[in-house]
Design brief:
This protein is of the alpha/beta class and about 625 residues long. The chain folds into 4 domains: about 90 residues, PriA, 3(prime) DNA-binding domain (GIY-YIG endonuclease), CATH 3.40.1440.60; about 170 residues, P-loop containing nucleotide triphosphate hydrolases (Rossmann fold, 3-Layer(aba) Sandwich); about 170 residues, Rossmann fold (3-Layer(aba) Sandwich); about 80 residues, Alpha-Beta Plaits. The chain is built from 16 helices and 28 strands. It has a 7-stranded parallel beta sheet, sandwiched between helices. Strands 5-2-1-4-3-6 form a 6-stranded mixed beta sheet. The protein is globular and about 80 Å long. Bound molecules: zinc ion (2 copies).
Length: about 625
């Protein structure tokens, strides 16, 4: 018999330490075991072996071995726990997820849409990129930014790099923002690698997920394609991790552990000597500044489409200006497809009384209620819904103005103005994204309209027009990434047009001179990023420093501010912004404190200790706290 240090997978912060158990000789680091703990039996992960228990403590034997993880994943999980201020048990759950139910019938994985065929030969830029990645794979690993305009052939580079990993007996992980929204990319991987790929996505049942994990662990599936949590897939002998559309915000997990799959991918690659490739047409400033670049240049077989900026200060007819209607009319007449982006769901984003000036707000959150097509006013942050009033509930006036437009209103107006176009709406209210995308792929004259979901990395033939209905929507956010997000969205949408035929792009805006609008209209990624980096350097924002965001919420207005004021004093010398009250959410008052630091893990740990000391008082006041390292929204 031997001894092993085991982290029991229980969520309580109080037991965040390993316990010593007696194990058979052949049990090593990475074994997932069943252990007696307190009065129950829990799962645990062996993090090291050999150390006997402290004198006077008797080690209980484990009850059995359930599974085995690659030891590198244990190291990765403990790093995640430390860096993101979580507990080892919660981070280990990411690499050793529970499989509760028995194996069910195996469902077909979502069929990807048929992708573009493999090219006869690579461009010189693609060949150079593949050669650099393969050389690094043989040389102990590296990190690259694969930068190229939409349509410049990034997916083919991932495919060839994965093939090179397989030839060397190594495995590969390909992260995509959302499987359902990227059916073509998935289709190309399926076509190239067949049964050797495993798909991990949110639509899987637990039994299916376990089946896929077993295929990965056994080595039957050597290429894993999936959304952010696939970065923890139990691939042995990892040679490559590709992060497609690396600018996408969905790579950040918004619940504990609040990891960022891009940061984790870089860490995992360095732990395992693998190559990490981050691909985008609109990279993050962080990646632009830090990573060696492999440039693919412009679009294959054509130029990027010209962009026309429509100044809404001079045009009537929002949301459909005359120039936009003219373009759509041409499609209704001659055929073709259009993609319209309006990053706001619902019919009308706000109902405003012209008499007393009051806007209907959510009773639980500090946001305007959105009118939906079914006649209800809905809050987009909590589940609150109420029937839209006929008269102003404040003053009784009938002068209720409907301000602005959401995707449902855009759909109605399009149906009224252009009855012969097939309309396909894609937003969080529409039912099945894959069906919508399939319909659009098959149509010969259609409009795909929706929120930012329409700008994700899908490629459709015959798209003659891409239009942004309201480029200003994102600029108003009080977040230092508002300009970056707007630029990415506009540039990504512009890239959907004219892949196989001359295409046009139209951007409607009240701020035609805003930097993100002007530079996106010129496809000038380099200049946008240079300006963005200069601004961030002056402010000490990422990548020139890390941020740690601490949010306290509670039932009463002053308590969160007071708690953060005390925390601020405890943190003393740190560079801190705030505390400041932020929007009320689900009936809870909130405040935030933001720290700028070079050592986010250490700061999060200090904050964690101070908060733990205050925990009993905070619990009594009904306060909860979230510590977010490298937050992606402020
Ligand atoms: Zn009123
Ligand atoms: Zn609400």
């Amino acid at each position: 018999m031997a001894f092993a240090a085991v982290y029991p997978l229980v969520s309580a912060r109080a037991v965040a330490r390993p316990f010593t158990y007696e194990v058979p000789e052949d049990v090593g680091c990475g074994a997932v075991v069943s252990v007696p703990f307190g009065r129950s039996r829990v799962r645990g992960v062996v993090v090291s072996t050999g150390e006997p228990p402290p004198p006077g403590v008797e080690a209980a034997p484990i009850a059995g071995v359930l599974d085995e993880l690659p030891p590198a994943l244990v190291e990765l999980a403990l790093w995640v726990a430390d860096y993101y201020g979580s507990t080892p048990a919660r981070a280990l759950e990411l690499v050793a997820p529970r499989a509760r139910r028995r194996r069910g019938e195996r469902r077909e994985t979502p069929a990807g849409l048929a992708g573009e065929p493999a090219p006869a030969e690579l461009t010189p830029e693609q060949s150079a990129a593949v050669a650099a990645i393969v050389a690094a794979m043989d040389g102990g690993g590296a990190r690259y930014l694969l930068y190229g305009a939409t349509g410049s052939g990034k997916t083919e580079v991932y495919l060839q790099a994965c093939a090179a990993a397989l030839e060397r007996g190594l495995g590969a992980i390909v992260l995509v923002p959302e499987i359902a929204l990227t059916p073509q990319a998935v289709g190309r991987f399926q076509a190239r690698f067949g049964a050797r790929i495993a798909l991990l996505h949110s639509g899987l049942t637990e039994a299916e997920r376990r089946d896929e994990r077993e295929r990965i662990a056994s080595g039957d599936a050597r290429v894993v394609v999936g959304a952010r949590s696939a970065v923890f897939a139990p691939v042995r002998g990892l040679g490559l991790i590709c992060v497609d559309e690396e600018h996408d915000a969905s790579y950040k997990q918004e619940s504990d552990p609040r990891y960022d799959a891009r940061t984790v991918a870089a860490k995992r690659a360095s732990l395992e000597g693998a190559v990490a490739v981050f691909g985008s047409a609109t990279p993050r400033p962080e990646s632009w500044a830090a990573l060696e670049r492999l440039e693919l240049g412009g679009r294959l077989g054509g130029k990027l489409p010209p962009v026309r900026v429509v100044d809404l200060r001079r045009e009537q007819g929002y949301p459909l200006s005359a120039p936009l209607l003219a373009e759509l009319g041409r499609i209704a007449e001659h055929g073709g497809k259009a993609i319209l982006l309006l990053n706001r769901r619902g019919l009308v984003p706000a109902i405003h009384c012209r008499t007393c000036g009051v806007t209907r707000r959510c009773p639980n959150c500090d946001v305007a209620l959105v009118l939906h097509g079914d006649g209800d006013l809905r809050c987009h942050h909590c589940a609150h819904a109420e029937p839209a009033p006929e008269l102003c509930p404040e003053c009784g006036s009938a002068e209720l103005a409907r301000l602005g437009a959401g995707t449902q209103r855009l759909e109605r107006e399009l149906a009224a103005r252009l009855p012969h176009l097939e309309l396909i709406r894609l937003d969080a209210d529409s039912s099945d994204p894959s069906t919508a995308l399939e319909r659009f792929a098959a149509a010969d004259r259609a409009v795909l309209l929706g929120t930012q979901m329409v700008a994700k990395g899908h490629h459709f033939g015959g798209v003659a027009l891409a239009a942004v209905v309201d480029a200003d929507a994102g600029l108003a956010f009080p977040d230092f990434r508002a300009e970056e997000r707007t630029f990415q969205l506009l540039t990504q949408l512009a890239g959907r047009s004219g892949r196989d035929a001359p295409g046009r792009v139209l951007i409607q805006t009240f701020q035609p001179d805003a930097r993100p609008v002007e530079l996106a209209a010129r496809h000038d990624v380099g200049r946008f990023l240079a300006g963005e980096l200069e601004r961030r350097e002056a402010l000490g924002y990422p990548p020139f420093g890390h941020l740690v965001r601490i949010v306290v919420s509670g039932p009463e207005a002053d308590a969160p501010m007071r708690a953060l004021q005390e925390l601020k004093e405890a943190l003393g010398d740190a560079d801190l912004l705030g505390p400041a009250p932020i929007l009320r959410l689900r009936g809870r008052r909130r405040a935030q404190l933001v720290a700028k630091t070079d050592r986010p893990g250490a700061l999060a740990a200090r904050a964690g200790r101070a908060l733990a000391a205050a925990a009993p008082a905070m619990r009594k006041a009904g306060l909860t706290v979230v510590v977010d390292v490298d937050p992606q929204s402020l």
